[in-house]
Amino acid sequence: MEYLENRELSWLRFNKRVLEEATAPETPLLERLAFSAIYQSNLDEFFMVRVGSVTDKVKNGSKKKDKFSGMTPPQQLDAIFTAVRRLQPSVEEALRLTMKELAPYGFEHVTFERATKEEQTFLELYFKRELKPFISGIVVNDALPFPFLRNKDIYAVVQLAAKKGISIGIVPASTGSSERIIHLGKDGKRFILEEEVILRFAHLMFKNYKVMDRALIRITRSADIMVSGRGPRVPSAHGGAGRQAPEACSRSS
């Protein structure tokens, strides 16, 4: 037993090796970016399926131990979250180093604060003309239900202050009709991301409120569902952990 490891933690070790390719000096720069993207894509699927399955066990009150590691479902979740949090600084550092080495070739991911005055003016007009007409903000408070957030979509979330108290505002950080990368300059090598521009000007979506704080979030929904209450769990693009599929459905669509 002491030589065996929980399969979820073993999988995270595998994904860590993918991440190591994103920082290996012998890996070409653009391939490093690809490995960073592969790492995140792998992690999405891991949370949607494997972590979704363990979460269901926790919600159902299961205390059954993993036969290899002897860990209960709550212990597995704690270990998974701890391992992922420890990896996160390496993920961010890998991207930072890659972009730093791409800088001599003119490629630069620009934040709004580092953009020139002309670029900031352009981005404000771009938000008002190209983004704002296609998105809408939702205020969440005691009187309104929490909205459905789409799987793997990015949202700008703002803390709103008004006379009646504190509320939360949520804005989709993508229009679905424009490019995520907004190019700055004629060569297109300097760029800013669409969600960063939406976050920067999110206050324009809530004119009757004062924005106290803001952040970007991204939802990963469980894709672990049961088919007809029998058989194995199967992934579904629509998420919904714990939902029962109709009796007639024997396959995931």
Could you explain how this protein is built, in words?
By secondary structure, the chain is α+β, with helices and mostly antiparallel strands. 39% of the residues lie in helices and 19% in strands. It contains five helices and nine strands; from the N terminus they run αααβαβββββαβββ. Strands 2-4-3-7 form a four-stranded antiparallel beta sheet. Strands 1-6-5 form a three-stranded mixed beta sheet. A two-stranded antiparallel sheet has the order 8-9. It is flat, with a radius of gyration of 22 Å. The two termini are 39 Å apart. The C terminus is likely disordered.
What's the topology here?
Blueprint: H1 7-21, H2 29-59, H3 73-102, E1 108-109, H4 117-131, E2 138-140, E3 154-162, E4 165-172, E5 181-184, E6 190-193, H5 194-200, E7 210-218, E8 224-227, E9 230-235
Parallel strand pairs: 1-6
Antiparallel strand pairs: 2-4, 3-4, 3-7, 5-6, 8-9
Helix pairs in contact: 1-2, 1-3, 2-3
Order of helices and strands: HHHEHEEEEEHEEE
**Low-confidence parts, pLDDT < 50 over ≥5 residues?**
231-253
What does the oligomeric state look like here? Answer: single chain
- Envelope shape: flat
Task: Look at the structure and give the mean pLDDT.
Answer: 85
The largest β sheet comes out as: 4 strands, antiparallel
C-alpha end-to-end distance = 39 Å
Strand order of the largest sheet: 2-4-3-7
> Strand percentage, roughly?
15-25%
In total, how many beta strands? 9
Q: Level of helix content?
A: 25-40%
Gyration radius, in Å? 22 Å
Helix/strand-derived category reads alpha+beta
Number of discrete helical segments: 5
